[in-house]
């Protein structure tokens, strides 16, 4: 079956603009995660969705970041008024339940000029 | 403050020899550890894991060892193959029911034919 799909694969934007990143999880996976990897760093947890429960937003670095998950499937991560330090690879993952075994997408490489 | 540390950014090994990737952690609440493998332009893929109640887990050419007293784990790959060349991330979970993984910065393994 299809894996986790993310779009776009690359996004170049100007400082101050808003961006939307999309994630299509594996069908049937109830849990969805967003992580990001800045250059030379490990993966940093951003947000977690599980079924109809309220998401855990504790990893979002500022209020410019928000995410939603519609219909328990597709998720969108929105970054408002982008800054240069937002440049990173944004990775989406899904899992069957709250599992430690995550299935990652290929990521969106975001570059803020 | 890094809770999961991979102190070697890179490692080169001859094909057929053993590769040993190391990971140290500081949080004694971590109860489950995982290794993910990442090829360029792809998302990380799950490789192998170990529960904190065990000291060894083996899967084919891959073995993970856990030394709880030293807060250290290692991934052994034997024999190493050129296709093993990738970035390896160590990750840890802090307790059953926790869904956040804490990742190290990764070690880039190069297997030389």
Based on the model shown, name its key terms:
heterodimer, A: about 110 residues, mainly beta, six-stranded mixed sheet, globular, B: about 110 residues, five-stranded antiparallel sheet, 11 strands
What would you say about this model in short?
The complex is a heterodimer of chains A (113) and B (113). By secondary structure, chain A is mainly beta. Chain A has strands at 5-7, 10-13, 19-24, 31-37, 43-50, 65-69, 75-79, 88-95, 103-104, 108-112.
Summarize the structure in words.
- The complex is a heterodimer of chains A (113) and B (113).
- Chain A has 113 residues and is an all-beta fold.
- Chain A contains no helices and 10 strands.
- In chain A, strands 2, 4, 5, 8, 9 and 10 form a 6-stranded mixed beta sheet that branches. Chain A has a 4-stranded antiparallel beta sheet with strand order 1-3-7-6, with no helix packed on it.
- In chain A, a hairpin with a 5-residue loop joins strand 4 (31-37) and strand 5.
- Chain A is globular.
- The mean pLDDT of chain A is 93.
- Chain B is an all-beta fold and 113 residues long.
- Helix content of chain B is 0%, strand content 54%.
- Chain B has no helices and 11 strands.
- Chain B has strands spanning 4-5, 10-14, 19-25, 32-38, 45-51, 56-59, 62-67, 72-77, 86-93, 101-103, 107-112.
- In chain B, strands 2, 4, 5, 9, 10 and 11 form a 6-stranded mixed beta sheet that branches.
- In chain B, strand 7 (62-67) and strand 8 (72-77) form a beta hairpin.
- Chain B is globular.
- The A-B interface holds A 4, 31, 33, 35, 40-45, 48, 50, 56, 59, 91, 93, 98, 100-107 and B 2, 4, 6, 32, 34, 36, 41-46, 49, 89, 91, 93, 97, 99-106.
């Amino acid at each position: 079956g299809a894996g986790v799909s993310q779009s776009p694969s690359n996004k170049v934007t100007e400082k101050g603009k808003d961006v939307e990143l999309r994630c299509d999880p594996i069908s049937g996976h109830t849990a969805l995660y967003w992580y990001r990897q800045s250059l030379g760093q490990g993966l940093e947890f951003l947000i977690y969705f599980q079924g109809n429960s309220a998401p855990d937003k504790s990893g979002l670095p500022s209020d410019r970041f928000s995410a939603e998950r519609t219909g328990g499937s597709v998720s969108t991560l929105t970054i408002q008024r982008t800054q240069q330090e937002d440049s990173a690879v944004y990775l989406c993952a899904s899992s069957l339940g709250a599992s430690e075994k995550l299935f990652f997408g290929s990521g969106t490489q975001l570059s803020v000029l | 403050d890094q809770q999961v540390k991979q102190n070697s950014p890179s490692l080169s090994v001859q094909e057929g020899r053993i590769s040993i990737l190391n990971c140290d952690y500081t949080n004694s609440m971590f109860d489950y550890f995982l290794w993910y493998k990442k090829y360029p332009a792809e998302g990380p893929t799950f490789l192998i894991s170990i529960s904190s109640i065990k000291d060894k887990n083996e899967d084919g050419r891959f073995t993970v060892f856990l030394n709880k007293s030293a807060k250290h784990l290692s991934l052994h790959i034997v024999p190493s193959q050129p296709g093993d060349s990738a970035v390896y991330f160590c990750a840890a979970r802090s307790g059953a029911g926790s869904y956040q993984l804490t990742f190290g910065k990764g070690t880039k393994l190069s297997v030389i034919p």
